[in-house]
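Can you give me the bound-state structure? Components:
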Amino acid sequence: MDKSKKPRRRAGSISPDERVQAILEAACAVFLEKGFANARVEDVAARAGIAKGTVYLHFASKEALFEALISSLALPPLDGLTALLADETGSSADLLRRAIGIFKDGVLASERRHVLRLLLTEGPRFPAIARFHHDHVVSRAIPMLRAVVARGVERGEFATDALARFPHLFVSPMLLALVWEALFSDIETLDVDGLMNAHLELILRAMEPR
Amino acid sequence: MDKSKKPRRRAGSISPDERVQAILEAACAVFLEKGFANARVEDVAARAGIAKGTVYLHFASKEALFEALISSLALPPLDGLTALLADETGSSADLLRRAIGIFKDGVLASERRHVLRLLLTEGPRFPAIARFHHDHVVSRAIPMLRAVVARGVERGEFATDALARFPHLFVSPMLLALVWEALFSDIETLDVDGLMNAHLELILRAMEPR
DNA sequence: TGATTATGACTGACTGGTCAGTCATAATCG
DNA sequence: CGATTATGACTGACCAGTCAGTCATAATCA
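Here's the bound-state model for the whole set.
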């Protein structure tokens, strides 16, 4: 409509923070569609409604932009988990049930799953990102899950500590769901809810005292 | 009966089959180290001890080379699994135990795991490869596992069919081990044997009739 | 047999295209 | 105004894929 040649920023236009946010959002879309190597900084800029050079006013390099993107989205859902698992009132089984819910809603069902997928596919070539995610997400989540299971075992609610030794097992089906979606979603859909319910059923039966 | 063809070759030359093999091996090393996008065909050639142009005498493009690499390594271990699961004599629990062994030896502990990792990271941008793997590996393995569990349930050896509905759950810890190695191996090692034993323990406890 | 020609596997310099990152310039703000 | 922010043409590096030429060997000839 109006813009014919030069829609320049006007008074009260967006702040640097908003600009950064816009770039990150655009970067998310472009990196997800193309992967790191095939994504063009120019496309990110275009999608954010700015010129390529402007991206470099906010990020030192394409790589820095990518790392900022991953980092900015990795953390939030972990807090929900922290809060949940601190709760000592309910049964341990319920706690696990709700932990699955958090994973499902906070990761698998949210846009965040795409970023996690990106971490998965690009991580091997970005050790810094892998390390960041390990230090800030994995190495926090594992002990939390471990503590919940250990407590359940102590209280006599759970009959085996296999899951306390390897909380990874609790998470692996979600990883599978993620990978399945990335690779096979348009060949054969996976019933993620069914999968998670079956997972929970198996876990809880396995730990049930008899 | 024998070769009607008389290949004309230079001094240090080898047969076409061996050449292709050498290229695939070199490609494996280079693609693993760099990923598809960052791998240079020239490096593959150099590693195979030939010139770049020669690669194109055997493969139409870098992409074709990559697809040939993945395809050539995906199939073998599946046959071991087929043979194993056809065996109706032992207990179903034992069958699952041995299936894990096959996965562990045939994939996780072999060089093949690297190729699987490559499939994982590059698959999203190579739908053809993802489809190939789905059609030739996944869609064969899942029904096999399903059949074993279903039989166990019918025979009264297993108390729940959750695993028959989602054989994916049986495989997901191996996927996790693979991903962990790709991302975090030099930050924190994962005890894969311990993980698989814990997995088996949980699965079997869960299905144990009581 | 040794000399000559035919073959095709192999080479690597070259081309054409892509794209990250730069910077002189321009627009806008305060 | 000068300061701040944005632009996009440009550069330099990189690399997939090509192809005209090389040369070891096989086939044929004398």
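A couple of observations. Residues 160 and 206 of chain B are 8 Å apart (CA to CA). The first helix of chain B runs from residue 16 to 38.
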